[in-house]
Amino acid sequence: MKVVAIVGSIRKESYNMQLAQFIQKRYTEKLDLEVLSLKDLPMYNQDIENEAPQAVLDFKAKVKAADAVLWVTPEYNGTVPGVMVNAIDWLSRVDKVMIGKPSIIMGASMGNLGTVKAQLHLRDILFSPGINSPLLSGNDVYIGAVHTKFDEEGNLTDEGTVKFLDVVIDNFLSWAKKYV
Q: Would the pTM of this model clear 0.85, i.e. be above it?
């Protein structure tokens, strides 16, 4: 299954990017995962949405070509980061490439609650009319104390978290097949 990961952090040492890259490496036999960068997306502007910059067109084309989307969000001030909202704004306009495309949400933070608040907000956003993405429920991935769970090479070393991800990824792939 072709999946794109949209990571809401552009920080060089982002734990959420490490999580997406770990999933990309670990489940390479189960899914074809491309981690998309949000660094080059300009701020959404309705004045140019019909003649969007090439970076936007390329980003939207990759999302459109994917069978599903993995959203990996940090939590900034109790909500979804601005770069992720900006990406969603572009995806929700003109050709609306997310409508009907299955999604799963994950997130990691140094706090104990993972990214619970951000994921709740993201869930609401993904149900909005311009996105309308079916979400896998009951497989919530909130990785707290993430700074203790990755090694210097970006490997997730917490055995319980890895085993949980194994189950969630299998559940997601089985569920998402009905939309492909």
A: yes
